[in-house]
Amino acid sequence: MKANIATFQMGVPLSSREMDRLLAQAQRMVSKTALPCTACHYCVSHCPQGLDIPSLLALYNEHEQSGRKLRTRTSAYR
Q: Which has the least CB within 10 A, 14, 28, 66, 69?
């Protein structure tokens, strides 16, 4: 944990080019999030099938962002 904290204590700001690249990548990621979800789990108790909807939406969005096929995760089901 100390090493992780030390990484962010250097205080070296991003260059203008680095910031532009970071913001461009963030915009690409946001634009590919097909179904936004805060993962509050409010919907889970209302699902008649008992699905972990936030986990399923996260899997779907991960697939949309990466383009990779994802293995089925049974933890998405209660």
A: 69
